[in-house]
Amino acid sequence: MRRISDKDWDLTLSPETIRELILKARAVSAGMNADYEDGAEHEVELDDRGHDTHHHDGLAEEEIEDLTARELRAAIRELNEDEAAELVALMWIGRGDFEPAEFRLAVEEAKGRSDIKPWRYLLDRPLLGEWLEDGLQAIGA
Which InterPro entries match (predicted)? Predict the structure, then answer.
């Protein structure tokens, strides 16, 4: 992938802010992967009478586990249209859908996608952190 020069892109979001989002996305992804590696995702253990044997602190336990995901979702939802479109474009570049030199085209494509909500679209991508980082590197940010 060829890097583009500074004059070819001008991010509304700072690269530092994007890197913070990358860290959160990776934490969310790592949490999902750990659940699946455990084999514990959505499992319920039953005793011989069919009662749930898993004891937990209810919603408090789930809220702690989901805190990073909620923070990431809130941070992405707070982005304005331009910022969200740039984030989607960076992900697309990192994923290989667009070349770095096509950054502006990717941003316009993202803005034109009225069929997606950027926060939902981005959060549905398990490799979001890696793709955003690859996109930042590709454009030389």
Answer: DUF3775 (IPR022254)
